[in-house]
Every structure is written in structure tokens, then in C-alpha cells.
Here is the input.
Amino acid sequence: MQHADGLRYWHEGKPATVAERFQIVAATYRALGDVRSEAEALANIGAAFYEIGAFENAEKALTEVMATAQRLDLRFLVAFCLGILSSVRFSLGRSESAFSLGEQSLEMARRQGDTRLEGLFEYYLSLSARRAGRLDEAERRARLATELLADVLAALPAAQAALAQAVLAQGRSGESLEHAQRAWDGLQELGKVEEGEALIRLAYAQALTAVDRADEARRVALEAAARLRERAEGISNSEWRETFLNRVPTNAESLSLARRLAGASDT
Here is the structure.
């Protein structure tokens, strides 16, 4: 039951609850001596820590899980851990290690023929590349992600949002809005997405701002900030609540943009 609850909370965008539930799951499997299932639960905990912004906790959990997964030859789990750990390392300021791990995760996903995982890893690396100022790479990876995730409707909007940000960073505001609009429409149609809800909202607000559609941009940005605060209210741990809002780059950027646009409306 706790395992099923944990997965449900993933889909509801509640990573702190995921971490709490899967800690119970991991302890249960540990008591039963089920090493494989315990490792899978711990991988979910590591990914949840990343989503919360508890990057040090995420690195510790994912590194430990990866060692177990390699010993048991759980290749999917190794690839999963490498992909998330790449983003974690980048968030901790270790970009060289981050991109190296990301390439390893992509190679494993390709060897396994897992286009969904490959697409997600290209998406993660696109975000890191853009933040590192590697804009051509960010665009290339985001385009690959949209191709690989074309049939994964719950993940495609996130890749489209990453592409919108990559081209906006290169000054192509009109094209950025086209990609951001597709991402936004996907979120509206689906209601919930597998990846990147906050990123989709942020990219759309940024693109609208860039083409001087100020009123729409303000509305989207304020809605994005309100949604983040709503999600944060469901995090009982005050430290996690703080890191979720202020340490996760997309979340911090969303709150900052909302404040700026709200202030602009008062001038």
C-alpha cells in the first residue's frame, strides 16, 4: 500500500510525501531481506530529494543505490540513478561530473532501447546545458528530447518547455513562444504531467514577457507562483519546504519572475 501511495504522490507532484512514503517502503523491504525492492524504493527517495532541492541527501541516496544496482546488474536502475545524479551534481556546482554522468546515462538508455528514458535524460541535460551557458547544446538536446518523447504525452510538454527556454536564451522570442505555447497547451489538456509542471508554467510566462504580452505573462507567472506555494504547503518539513521554493532553480526563478511582474503592474 505504501508503495502504491508513493507512486500516486509522484503523479500528484508531492515529492516530499514520496520521500516519506518510500522511506517506509524501503525499511519494510530491508526487514524482509528484499535487496532489489529496497534499492528501487531508495532510488525513488533519491529522486524525490532532488525534486525537493535536498541535493546532498539526493546524492547520498542515489550513490548508494547505484552501487547496489551495479552489484545486482539492475541496468535500468543504474541508468535511472545516473540520469538523476547528473542533475544533482550540476545543482551542487560540479558540472564536469554532471555532464559525464549524463552521457553515461544516455548510453545505457540507448543500449537498453529505452527511448522514454533517453528522452528524459536529454531533457535533463538540456536544462543543465542552458544553465551552464551552453546554449547550442541546450537547444540540440531539447530538440532530441521532443523527438524521443513525441509519443510520451505526459513528458513531451516538459521537453517543449526546455526547448522554449533554450531558444529564448538565444534571443529567438517568437520561436520560443511557439514551443512554450505547445507545452502550455499540453499541460492544460492533460491536467497533470509526468515532468516539469513548474518549468512549463515558467517557460510560458518568460516567452510571453519576451513578446510584450505583459498582462498574460503576469497572469501565468502569478498562477505559477501560487501553484508552487500550494505545493509547498503540503510539505510538513520546514527545511524541505524552504529548499523546494528557493533552492530548486525553476521554482526560485518562477517566484522571482512573479514578484517582478507583479511589481511592474504597480508602477
About this structure: The first helix runs from residue 2 to 11.
